[in-house]
């Protein structure tokens, strides 16, 4: 019997049924942890468990592998789950609701009780008997002429859709500096215009105002941060020092 989670836990369980390669288990664990999922359950993995090939493929997602639980049957693996989604792209002769990863993710966040997303073996996917245990079929909209996803790809699609409702931070956004104050940007523009005037750039006079406006639009469009402004002004100062005297 799986351990009961804390009350209110909403993270879905990822269940791999009869996975064949340790590398694929590791890659699935990596995909899970990328998006904040940590509970992995394995149903009769072909090469046993633990598998030495899983660790390197997990690329640091050791916590997922260390906590992975092994079960003899799928029924045992999902016995504590009120909502079970069977991932498949093939018709199985089983009449059940069919949802996309996005629809499943929304339901997982609102439904009461634990949820499990079940993935089949790499070669053939889930058997009809496996799908029969699920409450719904989860299918990825995909090219019907090439509907083959590897295990980690399927896991990452579902994990990503779930994570979208968690508000996970984007590191690249966090690392961005705020835009520079207008005063700093104005100083850079004035410095550049002064240098260009010395080189007779704003010629003929009749076009000078339009040229200045175009230049200003170019320099204000990117949303420079203060470090970028300082760097550019350093470049301009260096060019100014080396400019030949008239």
3D architecture notes:
- The protein has 246 residues and is α/β, with parallel strands linked by helices.
- It has eleven helices and seven strands.
- The protein folds into two domains: 156 residues, SPOUT methyltransferase, trefoil knot domain (Alpha/beta knot, 3-Layer(aba) Sandwich), CATH 3.40.1280; 61 residues.
- Strands 3-2-1-6-4-7-5 form a seven-stranded parallel beta sheet.
- The radius of gyration is 28 Å and the shape is elongated.
User: Numbering strands along the chain, what is their spatial order in the largest sheet?
Assistant: 3-2-1-6-4-7-5
- Biggest sheet overview: 7 strands, parallel
- Detail the poorly predicted runs: 3-9
Q: Proportion of β residues?
A: 5-15%
Radius of gyration, in Å, reads 28 Å
Any idea of the CATH class of the largest domain? Alpha Beta
CATH topology-level fold name of the largest domain: Alpha/beta knot
Mean pLDDT over the full residue set: 87
Report, as a whole number of angstroms, the end-to-end distance.
Answer: 87 Å
**How many structural domains in the coordinates?**
2
* Element-level helix/strand string: EHEHHEHEEHEHEHHHHH
Shape: elongated
């Amino acid at each position: 019997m799986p351990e009961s989670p804390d009350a209110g836990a909403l993270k879905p369980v990822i269940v791999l049924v009869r996975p064949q390669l340790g590398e694929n288990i590791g890659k699935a664990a990596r995909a899970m942890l990328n998006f904040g999922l940590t509970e992995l359950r394995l149903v009769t993995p072909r090469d046993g468990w633990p598998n030495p090939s899983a660790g390197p493929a997990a690329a640091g997602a050791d916590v997922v592998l260390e906590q992975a639980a092994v079960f003899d049957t799928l029924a045992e693996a999902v016995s504590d789950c009120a909502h079970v989604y069977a991932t498949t792209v093939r018709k199985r002769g089983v009449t059940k609701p069919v949802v996309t990863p996005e629809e499943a993710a929304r339901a997982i966040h609102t439904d009461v009780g634990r949820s499990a997303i079940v993935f089949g073996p790499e070669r053939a996917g889930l058997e009809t008997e496996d799908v029969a245990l699920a409450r719904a079929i989860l299918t990825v909209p995909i090219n019907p002429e090439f509907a083959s996803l590897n295990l980690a790809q399927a896991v990452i699609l579902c994990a990503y859709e779930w994570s979208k409702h968690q508000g996970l931070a984007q590191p690249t956004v966090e690392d961005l500096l705020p835009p520079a104050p207008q005063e700093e940007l104005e100083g850079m523009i004035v410095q550049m215009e002064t240098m260009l005037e010395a080189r007779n750039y704003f010629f003929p006079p009749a076009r000078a105002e339009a040229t200045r406006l175009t230049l200003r639009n170019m320099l204000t469009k990117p949303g420079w941060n203060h470090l970028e402004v300082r760097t550019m002004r350093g470049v301009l100062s260096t060019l100014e020092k080396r400019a030949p005297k008239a």
